[in-house]
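Re: the request from the purification team.
They wanted to know what the chain is likely to look like in 3D before they choose a buffer screen. I agreed to run a prediction and write the result into the notebook, where they can find it.
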Amino acid sequence: MAAFFTVVLLIWTAMNVYVFWRISSIPAIAHVPRTALVVAGVILWGSYIAGRILSHRGIQSLAAPLEWIGSYWLGVIFLLLVSLIAVEIITGFGFLLPQQAATWRWYAAVAAGALSVIALVQGFRAPAISSYEVRLAGLPSALDGTVVAVATDMHVGETIGGSWLARRVDQIQLLRPDLIILGGDIVEGDKDAREVIGAFWRLSAPLGVFAVTGNHEFYAGVEASVRFLEGTGIQVLRDRWVELRPGLVLAGVDDLTARRQYGEHGNFVQQALAGRPNPAATVFVSHTPWHVEKARDLGTGLMLSGHTHAGQIWPFVYLVRIQYPFVSGKYDLSGMTLFVCRGTGTWGPRMRLWRRSEILRITLRAA
């Protein structure tokens, strides 16, 4: 994890240095004193880091505004970076069109600003309800028509608060689900979410409310996060299964991305699915959409994941695909159906570009 965060910090630093270096050549900004630009850059670079440190020390009065500034700067600087790189390609990094390069960088900054506004509007929209029907092998006819509501990546507690959560709970309950599944990254640290999670108590469904851990539960301390979630009435599936009704099994695994980052090794998917009744229709939940073929080969009929946010802010999705080939939507995989939810909330800034947040409504049908 130390190596992971070191790499992230180096990338973050390089992004900030590059963006400020390039925008300093724009005529409208070139007259700003260099010292002022450096100070602004340092503040924006360090605001999120400082906010998280202060939050863990319980100094919320200072942490909240710093986290807010840092979160939104993360979204804006990404769009600035992409726009500036596009201009670099057009101008040959200033060598092909040296006279026009500064003007083109101004166009890039304007484009990034416009895209940031669009992303903010989309980020604050209520999640879409994406409805599907799935034929599930082994599902008893008595359970035909079972409705499953799936929400992932809510990240409650940082830039997403209690009123947002209350509206999402209302949205889920209006679906009249028989089963509710929260697919990881539910809270952004139990300290941040403690005062806003009361709405979780209103989640109810005949077959229960279940969750799996995501990587952010691990970052906050997985044992504390699990106790926190279970304290709100949510059942957390950690490498285990439950039989919801005769002939229908729900299994879940602790997050695979976080386990790799923390150096944990093992056949976690097999462990989560081992010993379940046979025959039985199996729904398997993994926050990270990895080991998909393994889950299928072990008899899973439906797999539910999240984590990718569908890139959240385009074109970040193309980088996400490198690590996570199953990035969003429905995949039919030779006898198993995989859904990767593009996230019900957002991480960092409340920004989304082109791909709106979603809640899945999946109706199970007997094969």
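For the purification team: Residues 60-91 form the longest helix (32 residues).
Please add any questions underneath this entry.
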